[in-house]
């Protein structure tokens, strides 16, 4: 934990003179391929990698593979969407997804409304990371640190880290995190099957013979997670992940569009590691049977704690803890930036002062983390219920953002009406227990309704006057990086070598 904070401080060394919101929130738009790669890999390797993926494998089996499917498809979409959003934001000086919405539709209040919606959707993720890291810290300390203290440690380390270092610090810590994730998951992929089953062959033979329903849709337990659910969930989430605020923060931190394209090609290879906790979760069925509810999320750690020495458990636990810190830091950073720019930034005293917007954003980071921590202690079920609709709720922003940025006829009221219709429907379906509905992801059903309403209102509803030219309103692919076209060689860590002179955006 101390090393994490130290890396955050080291990351901002030399950048302290740049006090604006853009440097803190998107790393001064100067991160190269390596940093963008490890930062965005944090989307896939959170505490879910060590807890949730193993728990899903333990409880359901094959349906958990949707995670790999949607992330890989999302990276393919990101090859086009990432550079497009990056170019749009850079051209207009925007630092969040809410800025883009406000600029596209010419209504600052819409950016404020979207910021509130996104905050409601992201708070459960912060709580889940606090809970996940707390469970890891308590487990690897063999109970010496209570869950309540572990939750506070998770909050304190992450909040202090993100306030000081911003996105640049998250990228630096992601390098350490990813190295540890690769090493620990690679080790567990070999060790656990050999230790408990004498290899993958006997393990897979046993699961085929004794637990075949874990290897097919709809998985174990009659969950209804069949082929239709798998396809619609993978499709919906692949669309959502490219406009997810934390993903967009990674896009906007890139030095150039080519870094994002290379990143989109490389990231799917990283997804291969996600097979490890999924398979080991299924292996835990035979070693620690009878885990139920939230206890199933500890399936992988039960295997680790029961078979490895304390120092090895500690190393794996640190990797899991870092897998909570990095995404939680970016979640908090995104909330702070949205409020600092789109909500509080509308206050005249802050509007013209980027340094004050940064301070306001840092205060919001602390407030958001504190709220998530307090609710973790007092009303954990409130955020758990919200988490049920977080991703499906975020999906309802897809027409407003992706379609709106490429189609001029999408009107303000069309986008708002579609969002309202889709959001209301997904809340009703999820909270009344109709997810999946007819075997289809409820969020996908709501997205279809959202799109239909948005198109109908845009074609036949009221239109608002907007005299701005298309170049001001719409986004476009930026093409190749001009530095590369001029003969420069892009440095993957964030600079450009041009002849004998080394330029870095500080």
TrEMBL record:
Keywords: Membrane, Transmembrane, Transmembrane helix, Transport. Residues 478-487 have a biased composition (Basic and acidic residues). Gene3D superfamilies: Sodium/glucose cotransporter. The chain crosses the membrane at residues 64-88, 109-128, 148-167, 179-197, 235-254, 266-288, 308-339, 360-377, 383-405, 412-431, 437-460. Coiled coil: none annotated. GO terms for molecular function: transmembrane transporter activity. It is found in: Membrane. Residues 468-506 are annotated as: Disordered. CDD domains: SLC5sbd. The keyword GTP-binding does not apply. It is a multi-pass membrane protein. GO terms for cellular component: plasma membrane. The keyword Hydrolase does not apply. Belongs to the sodium:solute symporter (SSF) (TC 2.A.21) family. This is Sodium:solute symporter family protein. It comes from Streptomyces triculaminicus.
């Amino acid at each position: 934990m101390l090393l994490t904070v130290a890396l955050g401080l080291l990351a901002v060394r030399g950048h302290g003179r740049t006090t604006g919101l853009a440097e803190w929130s998107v790393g001064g738009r100067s991160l190269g391929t390596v940093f963008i790669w490890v930062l965005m890999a944090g989307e896939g390797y959170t505490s879910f990698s060590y807890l949730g993926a193993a728990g899903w494998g333990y409880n359901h089996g094959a349906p958990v593979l949707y995670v790999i499917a949607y992330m890989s498809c999302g990276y393919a979409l990101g090859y086009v969407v990432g550079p497009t959003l990056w170019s749009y934001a850079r051209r207009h000086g925007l630092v969040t997804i809410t800025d883009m919405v406000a600029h596209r539709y010419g209504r600052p209040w819409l950016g404020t409304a979207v910021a509130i919606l996104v905050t409601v959707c992201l708070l459960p993720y912060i709580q889940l990371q606090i809970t996940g890291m707390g469970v890891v810290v308590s487990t690897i300390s063999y109970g010496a640190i209570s869950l309540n203290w572990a939750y506070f440690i998770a909050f304190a380390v992450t909040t202090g880290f993100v306030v000081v270092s911003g996105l640049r610090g998250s990228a630096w810590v992601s390098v350490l995190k990813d190295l540890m994730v690769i090493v620990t998951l690679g080790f567990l992929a070999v060790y656990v099957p050999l230790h408990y089953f004498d290899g993958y062959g006997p393990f897979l033979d046993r699961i085929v013979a004794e637990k075949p329903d874990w290897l097919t849709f709809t998985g174990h337990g009659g969950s209804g997670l069949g082929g239709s659910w798998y396809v619609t969930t993978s499709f919906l989430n692949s669309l959502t992940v490219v406009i997810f605020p934390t993903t967009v923060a990674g896009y906007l931190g890139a030095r150039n569009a080519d870094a994002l394209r290379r990143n989109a090609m490389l990231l799917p290879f990283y997804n291969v590691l996600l097979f490890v906790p999924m398979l080991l979760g299924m292996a835990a069925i035979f070693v620690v049977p009878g885990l139920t509810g939230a206890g199933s999320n500890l399936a992988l750690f039960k295997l680790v704690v029961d078979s490895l020495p304390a120092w090895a458990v500690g190393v794996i636990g640190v990797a899991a803890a870092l897998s909570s810190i990095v995404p939680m830091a970016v979640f908090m950073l995104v909330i702070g930036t949205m409020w600092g720019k789109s909500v509080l930034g509308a206050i005249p005293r802050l509007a013209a002062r980027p340094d004050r917007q940064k301070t306001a954003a840092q205060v919001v980071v602390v407030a958001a983390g504190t709220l998530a921590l307090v609710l973790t202690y007092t009303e954990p079920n409130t955020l758990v219920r919200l988490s049920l609709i977080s991703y499906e709720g975020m999906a309802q922003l897809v027409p407003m953002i992706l379609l709106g940025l490429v189609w001029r006829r999408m009107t303000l009221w069309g986008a708002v009406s579609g969002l309202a219709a889709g959001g209301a429907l997904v809340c009703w379906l999820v909270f009344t227990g109709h997810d999946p509905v007819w075997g289809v992801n409820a969020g996908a059903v709501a997205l279809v309704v959202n799109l239909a309403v948005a198109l109908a209102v845009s074609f036949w509803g009221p239109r608002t006057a907007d005299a701005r030219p298309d170049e001001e309103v719409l986004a476009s692919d930026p093409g190749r990086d001009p530095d590369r076209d001029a003969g420069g060689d892009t440095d993957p860590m964030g600079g450009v070598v041009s002849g004998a002179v080394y330029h870095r955006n500080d």
